[in-house]
Amino acid sequence: MKIWEGNLELKSVEIVAHETKKFRFVRPAEFEFEAGQFVSMRFDVGNFSAEKKSTVWRAYSIASESSEKNFLEFIVRIIPGGIASGVFDAAVPGTKIWTKGGFGNFVRSENSDAELIFCATGTGIAPLRSMIREELLEKNPRKMKLFFGGREPADLAYLDEFFAEKKVATKFGFSRSDDFGKFAEIASHCRITSFLETENFGKTAEFYVCGNGSMVLETVEFLKEKMPGTKIFHERFT
Ligand SMILES: Cc1cc2nc3c(=O)[nH]c(=O)nc-3n(C[C@H](O)[C@H](O)[C@H](O)COP(=O)(O)OP(=O)(O)OC[C@H]3O[C@@H](n4cnc5c(N)ncnc54)[C@H](O)[C@@H]3O)c2cc1C
Predict the structure, then answer these.
(1) Which of 133, 175, 130 is nearest to 156 (CA)?
(2) Contact 41/34 with Cβ under 8 angstroms?
(3) What is the pLDDT of residues 157-191, one digit of tens each?
(4) What is the CATH number of domain 115-236?
(5) Quick one: which of 133, 134, 176, 184 could link to 35 by a disulfide (CB 3.0–4.6 Å)?
(6) Helices (DSSP H) in 91-189: which residue ranges?
(7) Is the pLDDT at 83 greater than 70, yes or no?
(8) Using a 6 Å cutoff on CB, does residue 20 contact ligand 1?
């Protein structure tokens, strides 16, 4: 797949959870990616005089499905003091960000017998959402389960969307709340790994894990011990 490079132009921005915003950029006609991949975005740092200008690159997973041709969607946690976070927080429609992509091997397998088990915390839902939505568009979507967690409902994007999507067996886990509101029927006060302890998975299960560093390490370790030989794919955000 060809790597695209250029300015992405912001179409819209919306607050979708605590410290989390959703961004839709105009998708250039030549931009290609596979569901689950990420882009690299360039940000200026420090003194902006020509001689002292320096840049950093940050990765962001694409949350929209690859068949969505009009826009590329991202969800970004705004970290106070963060370089890219500052730019995202101030961004308005028309803002341009220099971007390269799509990159990465965190994509769905082609094994048609597989059951796809998705595990995410926080903004780690982004690449999984892309994969799930793309899979649902297939002629024969594979069986899918989603375990999605965070501290409390207000911290997470896309809860309503996954709650309404009955073709994916979804469970929400909230580590610091037992006030689940309208999500009560599929929510528990627990961490993601608790679901993995109690659920039964068949031999064809493939696990796709994404989130912050410690959650991913913990989940992958757990799966390797409990289900040796199982296919595990993961992406770490930090
Ligand atoms: C493949 C990949 C995909 C990613 N996709 C996404 C995505 O879809 N959405 C998203 O929000 N982020 C995503 N990230 C993380 C993103 O690339 C940045 O690391 C993050 O946005 C922070 O960048 P910053 O420049 O704002 O903060 P920085 O200036 O790099 O850091 C500022 C301070 O915050 C701390 N910090 C950095 N990251 C975190 C964190 N996650 N939690 C708490 N403290 C932190 C740093 O240690 C530092 O002290 C992804 C990372 C990778 C590797």
Answers:
(1) 175
(2) no
(3) 999 999 999 999 999 999 999 999 999 999 999 99
(4) 3.40.50.80
(5) 134
(6) 125-136, 159-164
(7) yes
(8) no
Q: Residues with Cβ < 8 Å from 24, sequence gap 6 or more?
A: 10, 11, 12, 13, 64, 71, 72, 73
Our answer on whether the CB atom of 23 is closer than 6 Å to any ligand 1 atom is no
Domain map of the chain by residue range?
4-103, 115-236
CATH superfamily, domain at 4-103? Translation factors (2.40.30.10)
Q: How confident is the model at residue 52 (pLDDT cuts 50, 70, 90)?
A: low
| Closest-CA residue to 9 (of 66, 81, 70, 78) | 70
DSSP string, 37-105: -EEEEEEEES--STTT-EEEEEEEE--S-TT--SEEEEEEE--TT-HHHHHHHH--TT-EEEEEEEE-S
Tell me how far the alpha carbon of residue 222 lies from the centroid of ligand 1, in angstroms. 24
3-state helix, strand, coil in the chain (%, to 5): 25, 35, 40
Q: Ligand 1, atom 34: nearest CA belongs to which residue?
A: 82
Amino acid at 8: L
Three-state DSSP class for 211? strand
User: Which ligand 1 atom sits nearest the alpha carbon of residue 63?
Assistant: 8
Rounded to two decimals, the pTM is 0.96
